[in-house]
Input
Amino acid sequence: MNQTIETLLNHVSVRSFTNQPLTEEQIKQLVTAAQAASTASFQQAYSIIGVEDPELKEKIAKLAGDQPFIAEGGHFFVFCADVNRHKQIAEDLDMDISETIEGIDAALVGAIDASLAAQNMVVAAESMGLGVCYIGGVRDGIIEISELLDIPEYVFPVFGLVVGYPNERNDSKPRIPFEGIYHTNRYNSHTKEIIKQYDETTKLYYENRSGRKQSRTWSDTAIGSLARLPRTFMKDFLNSKGWARR
Output
C-alpha cells in the first residue's frame, strides 16, 4: 500500500459540489496530468474541451440526462476522440489516410486515448482533494451537444468529467470480487455464483449507504442501464462525423 494506491481505492463519484471554481493553475495541472497518459502509437487522438460558460453548461446539463450538478461543479471537461488534426496534417503532406481514420479501429483508438487521459486527470484531481464524476450522459445528447461545442468531422464527445470541491460524498461502492474479474489463462464463463453473492453485497450497500438509500442490486443497476440507454443513434452519428464508415 502507498499513497497512490490508497487514492485509487478511495475513489467515489461525487454528485454534489460547492460552487467554488477551479483556478486556472489547477485546470492547467489537471490537463497536463491528462496529457501524460499513454497514447496509442503516440497519436494523441483526443482533445479536451473545458466548458466555462454558465449558460452553455446549463444546456449541456439538460441534454446529458438532466443532471444539474454538471453546471454546479468547479469545472466541466468534455473528452473527445479526435483525428481531425491528423486529417489536416495528412492533407498538408498530400497523403490519403481516409481508409484508416474512417475505420472502426480509429474510433476505438480515439475513445481509448481519451479514456486514458481522463483517468489520469481523475487520479490527479483526487490527489488534490477534489471530487470527480464521469458523465456518460453526454452521449445521450451527443448530436445537440456536438453542435453547441462546434465539434467538426472526425471528432466526437466520448464523455464529460465534472471536477470540483465536494459538498458531500457517498461511501465507496463495493466492486465485483477479484475472482469475478481476473481470469487466469482462459476466460471463465462460470461466474454466476460470484455475481449472485455480489448482488447481496451491493443490496446491503444501497440499503445502508450514507446517501440516498435504495433497494436494488448491482445487476438491477447494470442491466437496467443497458435496457434504458440503447443509444441506437450512435452509429449514424459517428458515420455522419466521418467515423466507423469502414
Notes: The radius of gyration is 19 Å. The chain has one domain: 3-171+231-240. Strands lie at 46-51, 75-82, 131-135, 155-164. The first strand starts at residue 46 and ends at 51.
